[in-house]
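Reading a protein record of the kind used here takes little practice once its layout is understood. The reader may check this reading against the record printed directly beneath this paragraph.
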Amino acid sequence: MRHVITFCWVALMSLTALVPAARADDYQLSHNQRISCSRGLAPGKLNTATCKSYTYLFNTRTSEYFRCQVSLALTRDNKEVINVQTDGGCTKKPRIFETDGHYDFDATETEPPNTNSFFGPGGYSVWAADMTAQKIRGCITISSGLGSDISKCLDMTFQ
């Protein structure tokens, strides 16, 4: 009986060694972070400065990504800071590639107001590369001006 239990144990261990290990999701922060600030005057000689910064968090296995933004608004008069407000969060975006793999990623964004932002606050571009093959996909997203974003991706050809 002891031999049967030992045999079953060895067989079970052999089978688990053959099953590929589940890959954990790995995340990469984009290399291009930007900050843009604006200042304005409010009634009563109040000054307001608003700064926004963004980054992208990319899942290097699934090619899903998140666009993250943080903002700070500071209101002051000539003598003191009256109000400080912060806001931010991350929004999930769709996969760039349909299958899981090992991907690299970067993104950049227009900073509003900008002559490139025809219909709204600007757009962004995302680049992703398959790290195991010669495969790159570039995507551009812009605001349609009608409340929705238009996004298109293109696989690069190599000559």
About this structure: The first strand starts at residue 27 and ends at 29. The radius of gyration is 24 Å. Residues 2-18 form the longest helix (17 residues). The chain is about 10% helix and 50% strand.
